Amino acid sequence: MSARNAGSVLDLDWISRVRVNHQAVLKRAQYIQSLKVSKKQWQAAWLLKAVTCIDLTTLAGDDTPSNVHRLCLKAIQPVRLDLLKNMDMHDKGITTAAVCVYPSRVADAVRSLKAAHSDLPVASVATGFPAGQTPLETRLQEVRLAVRDGAAEIDVVINRTLALSGQWEAMYRELHQFREACGDAHMKTILATGELGTFTNIYKASIVSMMAGSDFIKTSTGKEPVNATYPVAIVMARAIRDYYLSTGYKVLDPIILTCKIIIPIYHYVTGRYAAFHELPMA
Amino acid sequence: MAGCAAKTVYEIFQSMEYGPTAAPSAATAQAWLEHHSRSLGLFIDGAFVSPAGRRSCPLTDPKGSVVCSIVCSEDEDVSRCSSSAVSGYKSWSSLTCSQRSRVLLRLVSVLGLHGQCVSELCDLCGAACSPTALVRLLQFYSSWAQLRDALLCDWTPVGVVVVVTSDDSSLYSLMLKVLPALAMGNSVIAVPGRSAAPPALLLAQLLAAGGLPAGALNVLTGSDVTLGAKVAQDPNASFVTYSGNQQDGAALCKATAGMGLPVSVSLCIGPVCPFIIFESADMDSAVDEVVQAAFKKRKEVHWVLCVQESVSESVTARLKLRIAGLKCVSLRSDADRVLVDAAVEEAQQQGATLVQSCPPPPGSQYPPTLLCGAAPSSPFVVSPPPGPLLPVVTFRSNAEAVVMGNHSPHGHAASIWTEDLTLALETAHSLSVGSVWVNSSSVVDPCLPVSGHKDSGTCTDGGQEGLYQFLRPSGSTPLPRSAPGLMDYTRFGTEPSQAFIPESSEPGSSPQSYLQFVGGKACKSVSGCTMAVRAPGGSAVLALCPDGGRKDVRDAVEAAVKVQPGWKKKSPSARAQSLYSLAKGLEAKRLELAASLVSQTGVSLDEAGQEVDLSITRLSVWAAYCDKMQGGSLPMPQSGTALAIPEALGVVGIILPDKRPLLSMVTLLGAAIATGNAVIMVPSQKHPLPALAFIQVLQSSDLPAGVVNIITGSPDQLTVALANHSVIKAIWYWGSAQGRQYLQHTCASPVKSLRLFHQDQEGNDGGPDWTRSQPSLLQDLWRNAVQWKSVWIPSA
C-alpha cells in the first residue's frame, strides 16, 4: 500500500460546483458495458486481478467462528490451486484483498488467519453498520474496539442524514473523527449510494469522504435495496479522478463483484464450465 | 498479433493491459458475397443483373484487401434502369397507402432474419449502420406511408427520384432519403457511393423479397459521382437528392445544371461542428463524450472543442488523463497521414500545444491528439485534415460561445454542455445549425427534421418536414426538362442593358420616373442609370425606372442583414400585425395600384381591381399564417425532449414573374417575411410598375427598414449579383432556361436553395396559378422559406 490519503481541508466551494448530468452518466455506463471484453489470457488475468481486489465478506446474524474460519481459508485460496498452477499463477499470491466481518467476529477471523500463517488483513464494518443511525459516541467506540481486536481496515458508513440534508461540513467532521479513531487501520468509507438520491449527492459525498481522509470509498453496504451499479461506479471513479487531479492522491474504489468471476477462469483453464461443487466453498 | 499471443497471464496481471479485441465475425456477409462470386451486379427491375463488358471497380476494406467488386454502370444500364423505374413508379404509386406501408413493414421482419448479414456487410465495407437504426427508419416511414393521404392530402409524389450519396456516406444516410421517397409513393433510383453500394444492393434485394414491385427501387453503382449526373440526365428522372461530402455535392450540382431538374443536397459528411462546454457543465461527462466523438475511427464530422475560459484548465487536465489511455486510430490511407502531419506541423508553428498519448508511430496509425490553443481562424480548424485531431479553443462569455460556434461556413450540428436549461435553450436558439445536441452528441433519429444551415445543405431530412421534398402540390406543373446548353458562365448577365436615350416625343409628356427601394429608402440606382418601361405591346415609353446592378444588391443585402435578425426574433404575432398593416396600407392605395396594373399590363380596371383585392386578402392570409407555422415537441424513442423549430433562412432573393405582377409579388413577399426572412425582390423587367407603385405602401407600413428591398434592372444582371452574394441563402427565380442553368451552376458552392420556375419570353410560366389559394400551394411556399432545426435534450 502506497502512502495513505492524508485528507485535505474541506473545500465547500468545490462541493457547490459539482454538477452531474444523470442521463449522460447512464449513457456512458451503457456504452462501456457494450464494449467487447478481451478474451483468453487477458480475461483470466483481469479476473484474477478482480479477485485480489475483493473483500470476502460475511455480514450475517448467524455468523459463528466456524463459518468465519471457512471464509478465511477461502480468502487465502480463492481460486483452486490446480487452476492457478495451470496458469502459472500459484506462487503469485492470489488471495482476496481482505476478509470482512462484523466487529464481534474480528477476533475469530484474526485467529483463523494467524493459524493459517496468512497476513491477510481483517476488515471490520463499524459505525453502526449498515444504517449508521446510532450516536456518534458509540460509533467511534465501535471503531476503536475493532482496531483493538486486530482489524487492519475499518469499513465506516457515512451518516446519510447529514448527506441528504446537505450538511457536508458536519459529515466531514464525523469522518475526520472516524479516521482519527482508526489510527493505523485503513479507513474505507461506504457511501450507501442507493440511499443518496442523486448522482450529484454521490459525487459530493465521495469528494467529502476523500477530503476527510478515506483510503477507500465504497458504493454500498450490500444491505440497501439498490447496491453497486455501473453508473454509480462511474460517478465515484470520476470523483476519485477529480480528487487525484487536485491533490495527487489516488483513493481506491474496490470492486464489489460476485463469485461469478471464478467460472470464466475455470473455463479458460479447462475449456469447460464448472459445477457449483467444483468451486471453493465458504 | 503474434507477439501478444505469447503473453502470459502473469505478465498481463502485472501490466493490466487490454488484449486484442476479437475481430467481428463476417461469415454471413462473406457467404453472401461468395454467393455473388464477389462481383456484385446492378439491381434493376427487381433482380440482379450483370451486364457483360462493364468496367468493374474493386472495393477494399481498411486493411487494403479486396472485399468484392462492383460494376461501373454505363449509359445503356442507366436507360434500362430508368424505364424500369417508370414502370415501377406506375405499379408502386397505384397501390393504396396501406399496401405500401405493409411492404415497408414486411422488411422489418425480413431484417429480423437477415440483420446480421446487413450489419456484417456494412462493417466490411466501412459504411457502418446498425440494424436497429434501419428498423427504426423502416417503422417510421412505413407509418408515414400509411398516413400519406390522411395527413398530406393535396400533395402528389414527384415521380422518379434519384438518390445519390458520396463514397464516404453511410448506408443510413442513403436510406434516410430512399425510404421517405418510397413511402410517399415515388420510385427510386439509388446511386450509392462505393462503401454503401454492397449493403444497398443487399437491402434492395431484401425489399424486393418483401414485396416491393419490380422497378420501385433500382440500385446503380459506379466509380464516382458522375454516374449521378448521368442518371439525372435521363428524361424520366424528376428529382435529384444528394447526401454526402461537399466536393461531390458541388460537382453533382454543377453537372446537373440546366437539366431542368430540381436538385437538393445535404452536405452531412465532413462539416466542422462546435462542441461547446460551459462552466456550468458536467465536465466529466462532457469530456468522455468528446473523446468518444472526436477520436472514433470513422467520424463523419470534425469537432472543434470550445471551452469556457474559467474551466479550460480542468477540462484539459481531464482530457490529458483520458487521452493517455487511448490507442492509436488507423487512418484511411497513407495519403491521409501526410495531411495529418502537415496540419500538426502547421499547428505547432502557430503556437498550438500538442497533447498525445504517444509519439506518432510511422504508417497509417495516429494517436488521438489535442491541439490546445487553437483559434477559430487556424487553418486546421477551418479545413481540418482527416484523423484523430481535436482543436481546443477557449471563450469568455456565453455570447462569445455562440459567436464562435457560428463562425464557420458549416451549419450542420453542435453539441452544447451545460446543466443550466435557460442557457442551453438560449444557445440552441442562437446557433445556426441543423441539429443541436444538449448534453449529448451525434443523436440521429428519423423523427428529427434537420436542414443543413448555411453551407451544409439545401433540404430538410427527417420528420414530416423531410417528406415534402418528395412531394409537390397537386395540380402544380414540374419544371420542364431541358438539355443543358453550352454557356459561358462568366459572360451571363454582363450584357449592358439598353441605354435610355432621349427620343422625340410630344413636348410636355415626359414619362414618370420611379425610384427603387433599398434599406427602407426610395432611391436611384447606385450607377444613376435608368431604363425605360414600355407599355404593353407598344413601344411607347410608359415610365422610367432605375437600372440597378451589383452595387444596389450589395447595399440591399447590407441593409437586410442588419435588420433581419431582429425581424426574425420578433414574436410571430408582431410580424402578423405588420403584415395586417401592410394589407391595410395596400387597401388605402387601392386605386393607384389598380391604375398601375392597368397601364402596365393592359388589363381592364375591373380585373386590376380584382387583383388588388386578391393581393390584400393574400397579405391577410400570410398574416394569419405567421403564428401557425410552428414546430413542436417530437416523439423520440429515447427519453427526453426533442424540439423542432422552423427558422427563417435569412435573406431571400426573388426574381419575380411577369404574370400577375402585384399578386405574385405580394404572395412571395408574404411567404418570405411572414417566416422572418428579409427579401430582395427584382420585379419582372416587363411589368415592374406595380411593384414600384407598391413602394409607397411599404414606406407607409411599420415594417422595419431593410426587410423588403425592391431593385429594378436587367434580371440577368441582378441574378448574377444575387447568385454571387454569399449572404443570400435562397433564390426564387422565374425566368429563362439560361438563367436557371446559370443559377444551378453558380449556386453549387457555396450552396443556395433554389426554387426555379420556367418562364418564356411571352411571360407564360410553369409557376402556380396565383389567383388560387390552395393550401398546399401556400404551404409549399412557406416551407421553402424556412429551414428546420432540431434540438435534442435528453433526460433520464
Distance between the termini of chain B: 41 Å
- SSE string of chain A: HHHEHHEHEHEHHEHEHH
Please report the first level of CATH classification, the CATH class of the largest domain in chain B.
Alpha Beta
Assembly state (oligomeric) = heterodimer
Strand content of chain A: 5-15%
Tell me which protein chains meet in the greatest interface and how many residues each side has: A-B, 31 and 36 residues
- Annotation field: number of helices of chain A: 12
Major sheet characteristics of chain B: 10 strands, mixed
Largest sheet of chain A: 6 strands, parallel
Named at the architecture level, the CATH assignment of the largest domain in chain B is 3-Layer(aba) Sandwich
Unreliable runs of chain A:
none
| Binned strand content of chain B | 15-25%
- Alpha carbon gyration radius of chain A: 19 Å
Summing up helix and strand content along with how strands pair, one would put the structural category of chain B as alpha/beta
pLDDT averaged over residues of chain B: 91
If you compute it from the alpha carbons, what radius of gyration of chain B comes out, rounded to the nearest whole angstrom? Answer: 28 Å
Instruction: Choose one word for the global shape of chain A.
Output: globular
Q: CATH topology of the largest domain in chain B, what is it called? A: Aldehyde Dehydrogenase, Chain A, domain 1
CATH superfamily of the largest domain in chain B: Aldehyde Dehydrogenase, Chain A, domain 1
Description:
- The complex is a heterodimer of chains A (282) and B (796).
- Chain A is α/β, with parallel strands linked by helices and 282 residues long.
- Chain A has a six-stranded parallel beta sheet with strand order 1-2-3-4-5-6, with helices on one face.
- In chain A, strand 2, helix 6 and strand 3 form a beta-alpha-beta unit.
- The longest helix of chain A has 18 residues.
- Chain B folds into three domains: 242 residues, 3-Layer(aba) Sandwich (Aldehyde Dehydrogenase, Chain A, domain 1); 177 residues, 3-Layer(aba) Sandwich (Aldehyde Dehydrogenase, Chain A, domain 2), CATH 3.40.309.10; 261 residues, 3-Layer(aba) Sandwich (Aldehyde Dehydrogenase, Chain A, domain 1), CATH 3.40.605.
- In chain B, the strands form eleven sheets. Chain B has a ten-stranded mixed beta sheet with strand order 15-17-18-13-12-20-21-38-32-31, with helices on both faces. In chain B, strands 9-8-7-10-11 form a five-stranded parallel beta sheet, with helices on both faces. In chain B, strands 35-34-33-36-37 form a five-stranded parallel beta sheet, with helices on both faces.
- The chains are: A alpha/beta (282), B alpha/beta (796).
- Chains A and B meet through helix 2, helix 3 and helix 11 of A and helix 2, helix 11 and helix 12 of B.
